[in-house]
Amino acid sequence: xxxxxxxxxxxxxxxxxxxxxxxxxxxxxxxxxxxxxxxxxxxxxxxxxxxxxxxxxxxxxxxxxxxxxxxxxxxxxxxxxxxxxxxxxxxxxxxxxxxxxxxxxxxxxxxxxxxxxxxxxxxxxxxxxxxxxxxxxxxxxxxxxxxxxxxxxxxxxxxxxxxxxxxxxxxxxxxxx
Length: 177
What we know:
2 helices, three-stranded antiparallel β-sheet, 7 strands, four-stranded mixed β-sheet, alpha+beta, 177 residues, SH3 type barrels
């Protein structure tokens, strides 16, 4: 091998090695220059000051009457007397949801149940023992049962027949032959 061949081989290896090192370094420098140019072109950002926290608010007092009003109910005993031309004659209250109220108008008396529309346009909302509650013009109104004392006979402890002791004993039907 000649010296020129050895030098050519060494120089080509050196050039190749320097090229392999210079290529990534050049790409990194080019990317750094691009980033610097981008950041200098951005407008200056102002530093934001932190907002002050609002003072804690006092808790609102629980108001069941307000909630009842929102749901369409009137507070207990605050239902307005109804302006309907009806009178409550009787109320039949059932625990199984079959309550009925006898309402009398100018021409007729009829039984109504909860949810029925009345002749004046109101709706029967609740039936209670001594009154009915109507929904009329967006509010509750009540029809009160007239005084029951003038229609019923007074209850007396008069001559109620006394129970006589049984003199014969009956056997159940199932035990008979």
